[in-house]
């Protein structure tokens, strides 16, 4: 009798891009086990707890037996209505909650699934580089391939749509864009979105705009929704998340809004794969979407103090950085003589400060590191003091 079977990973898993954070993860574990007082600026996860009124609503919702059964896959109508109301208030964009809103188990879930609805083998998904690693992986899992559009400093970290080659355009079916941007913290002007709509119409490409950071902004400069652009709803959808706005990363709730046929396609995949979000979480989500601006301003104020401390601190060290207008990230070039990985390793070794190497977000992230402002101002100042001694 044979002892076992030959367990082999599928090609799509073997084809995954290498996980570039593995060596950093090891170094972090090493430092922690050696007792280093690590200042971890690598985590894209808010350290601030979920707002109290949301947690309170959850506690009540959990007790309701009606919430203990299967939810509907597309989301409770009251949640989708709350999303539509929020879009109207925040962006003055009208949405049909039944056809143009879909709830998601975190926006990552929808981003990961959407190529399954629209991508055939050989099709191309245009993805930003550097960018959220899920975009190219989702393309691969659907049997397609990602084509990287570099986000370069010289172009304000916007993709140059005119630079995508004709043969790629002929196979491109879907494009991910993401502003305010992770990891570069760049925002997009209205002209860029207008170009994206025109580009999508000309080449028949579905636009998926990831707006996870639309509410984390500074100096009262409110980022736009892609759907505010005339024609946008004809060509695409927007992904949104409660994770970053309301400090709810652990709850897993987000949504997609926009073109009804694209929403229906994504919904079709979801009906076949998942059974929606726990209704108690959707009730808490409604509460979240109704949060008054005062509480959100307080959160933005907290991040703004951190941003100012980190920006001015790092600038004084001579690092080549721009003042972030949004997101809780700061994107920095590495000093001469370093690459992304060696600079991260150097800061960790000499100062106990951990950042994320930019090349982990795609080839065009080489030469950069990302700092996340998910620790207190006190710790950020301490990080700057330590770096001052070694840079
Ligand atoms: C955090 C993040 C998301 C996903 O967040 P969810 O918790 O899955 O809603 C999506 N896109 C970007 C760019 C992010 O940084």
Task: Please give a structural write-up.
With 391 residues, this protein is of the alpha/beta class. The protein folds into two domains: 134 residues, Aspartate Aminotransferase, domain 1 (Alpha-Beta Complex); 238 residues, Aspartate Aminotransferase, domain 2 (3-Layer(aba) Sandwich). The protein is 41% helix and 14% strand. The chain has 14 helices and twelve strands. Strand 3, helix 6 and strand 4 form a beta-alpha-beta unit. The longest helix is centred in the C-terminal third of the chain and has 24 residues. The N and C termini lie far apart (62 Å). 47% of the residues are buried. Bound molecules: pyridoxal-5'-phosphate (PLP). The site of pyridoxal-5'-phosphate has 14 residues, from helix 5.
Please trace the helix and strand order, writing H or E for each element. Answer: HHEHHEHEHEHEHEHEEHHHEHEEEH
Euclidean distance between termini CA atoms: 62 Å
CATH topology of the largest domain: Aspartate Aminotransferase, domain 2
Q: Whole-number radius of gyration?
A: 21 Å
Give a quick account of the main beta sheet: strands, pairing sense, barrel closure: 7 strands, mixed
The largest sheet has its strands arranged as 2-8-7-6-5-3-4
The coarse overall form would be globular
Round the mean pLDDT to the nearest integer and report it: 96
| CATH architecture assignment of the largest domain | 3-Layer(aba) Sandwich
The assigned structural class equals alpha/beta
How many H/I helices? 14
Tell me the domain tally. Answer: 2
Q: What's the total count of β strands?
A: 12
Bound molecules: pyridoxal-5'-phosphate
Specify the helix fraction band.
40-55%
CATH H-level homologous superfamily name of the largest domain:
Type I PLP-dependent aspartate aminotransferase-like (Major domain)
Beta-strand portion reads: 5-15%
CATH class of the largest domain: Alpha Beta
- pLDDT below 50 for ≥5 consecutive residues: which ranges? none
């Amino acid at each position: 009798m044979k002892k076992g079977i030959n367990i082999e990973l599928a090609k799509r898993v073997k084809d995954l891009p290498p996980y570039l954070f593995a060596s950093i993860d090891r170094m972090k574990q090493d430092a922690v086990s050696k007792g280093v007082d690590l200042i971890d600026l690598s985590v894209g996860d808010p350290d601030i707890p979920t707002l109290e009124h949301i947690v309170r609503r959850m506690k009540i919702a959990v007790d309701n037996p009606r919430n203990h059964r299967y939810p509907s896959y597309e989301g409770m109508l009251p949640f989708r209505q709350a999303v539509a109301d929020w879009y109207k208030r925040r962006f003055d964009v009208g949405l049909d909650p039944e056809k143009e809103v879909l709830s998601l188990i975190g926006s990552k879930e929808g981003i990961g699934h959407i190529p399954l609805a629209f991508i055939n083998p050989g099709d191309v998904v245009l993805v930003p580089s550097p960018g959220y690693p899920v975009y190219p992986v989702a393309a691969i899992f659907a049997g397609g391939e990602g084509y990287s559009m570099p986000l370069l400093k010289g172009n304000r970290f916007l993709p140059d749509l005119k630079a995508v080659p004709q043969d790629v355009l002929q196979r491109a079916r879907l494009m991910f864009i993401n502003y305010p941007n992770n990891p570069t913290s760049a925002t997009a002007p209205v002209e860029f979105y207008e170009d994206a709509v025109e580009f999508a119409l000309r080449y028949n490409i579905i636009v998926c705009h990831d707006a996870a950071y639309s509410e984390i902004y500074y100096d009262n400069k409110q980022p736009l929704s892609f759907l505010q652009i005339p024609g946008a709803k004809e060509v695409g959808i927007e992904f949104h998340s409660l994770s970053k706005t309301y400090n709810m990363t652990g709850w897993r709730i987000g949504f997609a809004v926009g073109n009804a046929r694209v929403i229906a396609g994504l919904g079709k995949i979801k009906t076949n794969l998942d059974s929606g979000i726990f209704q108690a979480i959707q009730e808490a989500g409604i509460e979240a979407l109704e949060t008054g601006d005062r509480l959100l301003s307080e959160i933005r104020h907290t991040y703004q103090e951190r941003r100012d401390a980190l920006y001015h601190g790092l600038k004084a060290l001579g690092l080549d950085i721009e003042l972030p207008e949004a997101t809780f990230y700061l994107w920095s070039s590495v000093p001469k003589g370093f690459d992304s990985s060696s600079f991260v390793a150097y800061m960790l070794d000499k100062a106990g400060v951990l950042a994320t190497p930019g090349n982990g977000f795609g080839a065009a992230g080489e030469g950069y590191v990302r700092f996340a402002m998910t620790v207190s101002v006190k710790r950020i100042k301490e990080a700057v003091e330590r770096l001052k001694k070694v840079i």
